Amino acid sequence: MEALLATLPAGGGGTVAAAVAVAGLAAITGVRMGPKQRANAPPAVPGLPLIGNMHQLTDAPPHNTFAKWSEIHGPIYTINVGAKHVAVLNSAEVAKEAMVANFSSISTRKLTKAFSVLSRDKMMVATSDHGDFHKRGKRFAMMGMLGFAAQKQFRDTRKQMVDNMISTLRTLVINDPHATQDFRKNFRDELFRLSMIQGFGEEVSSVYVEEFGREISGEEICQIIVVDMLRCVTEVDWRDFFPYLSWVPNENFEKKVTTIESRRTAVMRSLIKQRKKRIEGGEARASYLDFLLAENTLTDDQLMMLLFEVVMAGTDTTLMTTEWAMFEIARHPEIQERLCREIQEVCGDDRVTEDHLPRLPYLNAVFHETLRLHPAASVLPPRFVHETTTLGGYEIPAGTELMINVYGCNIDKKVWEEPEEWRPERFLDDGFNIKDMYKTMSFGAGSRTCPGSSQATSISCASIARFVQEFTWRVREGDEDKADTVQFMGNKLQPLFVHLTPRRGREQ
C-alpha cells in the first residue's frame, strides 16, 4: 500500500491528475465505495472519503495492521480500499467457514492487474476460479508431479539436491570459516534445479531464446521466470483500487509488467521447444512436461502456464518456509541443540533421509511452528463474493471482496498461547499428527487445499534436518530481529545471512 501511495503522484503526470479529478467527481456525484451498510453487517473500520482505509495501511505490513484491527473490531470486519469494499477475516474458524461451508458463494478469484497479466488471466491452478480448468489442472499436478507415485520417482533427485546444498555450504566454510553465507541464493539455486528436473526431465544449464537472439544461462532462466516474476506480483497499479477509472492509462506500470511477462513467456516457450525436440528424438524421461504432452488436452498457453506454476512454486514457496525456519533456528540456540539431539538419537551417524521424518516429532514441530508464524502468504489473494452469504454471523453482500489474513488467524490469542513467540513445543502437546499441517491455514482448506503440501513438507523437513545435522547455525550479527516480510506475501524481506560451523565428526 505504501508503494501505491508513493506512485500516485508520479504515475503519468497529467494523466494521474485527471484520474484523481475524476475520482473526486465520482465521489461527489455519489459513486459508492461499497454496498450500503446493512443491519447485520460486520463492524466497519472508520476511514476517509474517497481513499477509505488506504492511508492506514502504510505504516506497517498489512497483515500486522489487519491483526491489530481484529483486536478492536473482532475476527471479521470491513474496510474500504479506494472504491473497493473488502471483508477481512482474522479467525481460522471464520476462514474455514468461508473456504469450506460457504465455498460456492466465494469461489471466484479477484486478481490485481499485475497478477492477472502474469497469470494470463487465471491460467494457473492457484489463480483460477473453481471450475473445470482448476479441477483438471490440479488433477494433472497430482498425477504428473505431486502425487505419491510421482513423488516416489523423484525421491533420489530430492536427496541429491540436499546433498548438493550441504556440499556447497561445506566448501564455502572451508574456503572462509568466518565469512557470512547467503542462504537464500544457495538454496534457491538448488531448489530451482530440482524444479527444472521435475518439470522438464533434466537440469537445464542454458537455452537459446529466439526473441533475445542469444543463449541464456541457467541463472538467467531462474532470474526471469522466478525472481523477476515474484517481484512483479507485488507491483501496485492504483487503478486496482478505483475500478471505475480502469480506462485511464498507467504507462509505467503497464510497460514494466508486460515486459516481464513477455520475457517469461519467451523463456518458457524456448524451454518447451528444446524439450520437445529431444522427445521427438526418442529421449523420453519422467517429467511433468512429458506427462502433460501425453495428455494432449491443453492449449500451448495452458501447457506453458501449468509448467511455469510448478517451477515457480516449487522454487519459491519451499525456499520461503525453509529460510524462515533456519532464521528462527539460528537465533534460538537452545531449540537448535534440542533438534540436533533428536536427530542424533534417531539417525546416529547416518545422514537424515525422508524415511526418518515420521520419527522426528520435534523436527515436524519446528516446521509447523514456522508455517504458523511465517505463512507463505500472509494474506491470501482476494476472492469475490458473487452470492450474498453469511460468515461469522454477519451478512456479506454480493459484490464484496474477501481477504483472509492467514497471519491474523495464526496469532489468534483465543487459539494460541503467546502466539507471537516462535515456540515449536506447542505442536508436541498432543503428539505429532499429520493433521497439524492444516491447523495453521498455511496449506489452505477445503477444495483449494494446496496440492504441493506433501512435497513442500518432505523437502523442507529433510533439508532443515540435514542443515542442523551438519552445521551449527548463527545469524549474522545485527540481523537477529530482521523479520520483515514483502507486502501481502510471506517472503522474508532481507535474505538470511548466517555463520556456519561444521559439527564435530561431520567436517567431511
From TrEMBL:
Q: Which Pfam families match?
A: p450 (PF00067)
* Keyword line: Heme, Iron, Membrane, Metal-binding, Monooxygenase, Oxidoreductase, Transmembrane, Transmembrane helix
Q: Which organism is it from?
A: Lolium multiflorum (Italian ryegrass)
Against PANTHER family, the record matches this protein to: ENT-KAURENE OXIDASE, CHLOROPLASTIC
List the GO cellular component terms.
Answer: chloroplast outer membrane; endoplasmic reticulum
The biological process GO terms on file are: ent-kaurene oxidation to kaurenoic acid; gibberellin biosynthetic process
Q: Where in the cell is it found?
A: Membrane
Q: What is this protein called?
A: Ent-kaurene oxidase
Q: What is the lineage of its organism?
A: Eukaryota, Viridiplantae, Streptophyta, Embryophyta, Tracheophyta
Q: Which cofactor does it need?
A: heme
Gene Ontology MF term list: ent-kaurene oxidase activity; heme binding; iron ion binding; oxidoreductase activity, acting on paired donors, with incorporation or reduction of molecular oxygen, NAD(P)H as one donor, and incorporation of one atom of oxygen
Which family is it part of? Belongs to the cytochrome P450 family.
Matching entries from InterPro entries are given as: Cyt_P450, Cyt_P450_CS, Cyt_P450_E_grp-I, Cyt_P450_sf, KO_chloroplastic
Binding, heme: 450
Q: What is the protein's membrane topology class? A: Single-pass membrane protein
